[in-house]
Amino acid sequence: MSDASSKPWIRRRIERAVAKGLTRAYSTVQIDPQRFLIQLRSAYRLPISGYQGVYSLDIEELDIVANNVIRGGMKIAAVEGAGFGMGGLITLFPDLGILSAITMRTIQKLSLVYGFQFNTDEEIAELWIAAASAAGVDLGRELIEKEVVNKFVPRVIERIAASASAEVVERWAGRMIPLVSSALGAGLNYLFVRAWGERAKAHFRQRHLQIRQRAGETFAAPQAENILPSSSQ
Predict the structure, then answer these.
(1) How do the domains of the chain map onto residue ranges?
(2) What is the pTM assigned to this prediction?
(3) Three-class SS of 42-101
(4) In the predicted model, what is the mean pLDDT of residues 123-142?
(5) CA-angle at 45, arms to 42 and 48, nearest 5°
């Protein structure tokens, strides 16, 4: 018996709902980097003309923006969860599909805040590695290195959906009760986006600092070469 057929029917349905939401976020409702750049300059007052400019800002300034992005996603998810929560189990699956899309859009914004666009296959793959990290999924180097992006992304979505379904089955039991589940749906969605957003933020923040460190080492090497001759005189 396959792993898929051995899972309870509700978990299989949850996996499909989450995978559908993530796929939709990937293919049809991606964040427009240029529009978000305008938002970063106008709403968050970041003095940048392009995403490369975030590397010249204080990391704490980027952290503040990232926290605001996460809170925004949490609020949207809570409103959506309250509305769908009124239907109990009947609306659980569409709710999870929309929640997955909201979460993925939040992760896309966090990627841009820390200077990582998703224009190339490598950048798209990195975005989904961050999403997997947010879901607590260890992809393994063999998957990351051997797959081209159009095969890599669906496989990552499959693993994220499997991980998310286990979390949902464990925590969303109260959603089975109509009306009472409205407040619970709002709270669970709120916490879901917060947890995944914080993990994705930590992933992008670490990579951002690594790039800053490498850039600093690159610039430091020529400066050291210039100092050595004068100090020996």
Answers:
(1) 3-232
(2) 0.77
(3) HCCCCCCCCHHHHHHCCHHHHHHHHHHHHHHHHHHHHHHHHHHHCCHHHHHHHHHHHHHH
(4) 80
(5) 90
